[in-house]
């Protein structure tokens, strides 16, 4: 038995040594750890060459840092501008939506109030069968349009007629003044107006009152027909003057009377021209009743046209508002 106990103890001792050696081996394998620690952040370098005091003074590093700062600030600035624009757009859109909602609510309230006032018990006999009457503004607009069309065609014709009438009346008055002036001066030629057998007024007409040769011919005709063919040589001053001047110089009487006839023609022409220019001046034209009436008609036409344009503008504005309300209701 002692031998068995000794064998058992001797066997247990190396077994225990073997077990302990295996545990130590496993423990040495499992407990092996890395001596280097894993860093969770990035560092530039830990040596003295790249210390902050070194690379901050480096011009290349400064340039890189400045470029980085500039690009970063530029991106932030663009981002801020874009954000502001979007905020502005969103704000405007929100304001528009709010205004639309307010306007829609207002229109719905007005329509509900108007519909509530309407009677629901409408019969077929109550429905009107006549055509709806137009508003007063539309009637006035159409009336003004018709008046404008009529006056637009009548007023130019009236102005043309008025100008023609003024010109004709001025010309007629100038001719009358010229004829009367010529007769007056011709009567003073050696009392030619007192000759009983010679109708001086009938000889001077509107066509020859300012013609020198015609008036000279009238004087020579009077000297021949009255003084040569009648027995009034001794009683008429015209004939006595002819014979008394003709005794000294036969052609002197004809030259003197011719000069006087020329003066009469020139004076008659000047009188006619002065009268015509006076009647066709601005003051004379605007003092004429026909011209004043034409101006009044033109002013009335312009006023009617202005009223028509105002009413048309108001009607278009109302129609535009109605279309806007209809669009809002449809939305």
From TrEMBL:
InterPro entries assigned to the protein according to its UniProt record, in alphabetical order: VSA_Rifin (IPR006373)
Signal sequence interval, chain numbering: 1-19
Example GO BP: antigenic variation
Record key words, sorted: Membrane, Signal, Transmembrane, Transmembrane helix
Regions that span the bilayer: 289-311
GO cellular component assignments: host cell plasma membrane
Protein name (Swiss-Prot/TrEMBL): Rifin
Annotated organism of origin: Plasmodium falciparum (isolate 3D7)
